[in-house]
Amino acid sequence: MVACWLVVALSTLTACIRQDPLPADSGMRLVSTAPHLTECVCAIGAGHLLVGRTATCDYPPEVVSEIPITGDFAVPWLEPLLAVRPTHVLETVLSDPALRDRLTALNIPVVHVPCTRLDQIPDALRQLGVLCDRSTRANQLADDIQSGIERARQAASSYQARPRVLLLFAPDVSITAGPNAFVTTLLELAGGVSVGHDLEADYPRVSLEWIIAQDPDLLLCIFETTLPPLEVYARQTGWRSLRAVRSGRVYTVTDLNTVSRPGPRVLDGIAQIKVVLDQDAERFAKQSPTPDRP
Prior knowledge:
By secondary structure, the chain is α/β, with parallel strands linked by helices. It has two domains: about 25-140, Rossmann fold; about 160-285, Nitrogenase molybdenum iron protein domain (Rossmann fold), CATH 3.40.50.1980. The chain has 13 helices and ten strands. The strands form two sheets. It has a six-stranded mixed beta sheet with strand order 4-3-2-1-5-6. The longest helix has 22 residues, at about 135-155.
């Protein structure tokens, strides 16, 4: 009974929304529920198939600026989504899993694209290539990314000294990254070691006492701030006791999205972190590096 009521209610909602007739050759119409999926679709040359995106999708700007907003990250808005009449909805995770059943009841397939880890990116591109009939371009891009990751992995294995890095995701809450977090894998490929390697969660909240006990070599800020990253922590009691803060080894990257989104710009993300680590190493070349901890 509940299922029947749901289908009737959604059908009524669909009928109430003004929908212009689709062109006869309109073909596939995609709605993306995550910025990294939007980037993947555009990177394989299928951006023209997108008819809906999230409010946080911002790359590539010349493409996404023309696409209607149909939700937030992992939170599609049903009425705007139905208004663009998608043939498929792309997701890596949905905040409300029941939405899949609602859309399926309306004959709108929800396509799950696993893409939260570094090694999932090439397969995600290949999967989207098949879906969008862009396999040639998708496979080439996936192969290039896979090769780039392997080159970075081989280079990282030869590094003699790696700085111990605390990754931070907010200026006022101590959230860091665990060993399986996407940005942690980028950091390791760039030549660093995360001080959160023993933590269980991907993005756990930690205490200042824990941070002081770790006493990292440098801080890498993965958040936006109007202040220089060093000033954010130099003003806070407790943080000033860290060697990284006292010595000015507090940094960020040029484009935060490339290091936080598992998508086609992943090699740029690794390169940006490596630039930070290389510049830090050059600044402190006369200091003895801290050896890796087991």
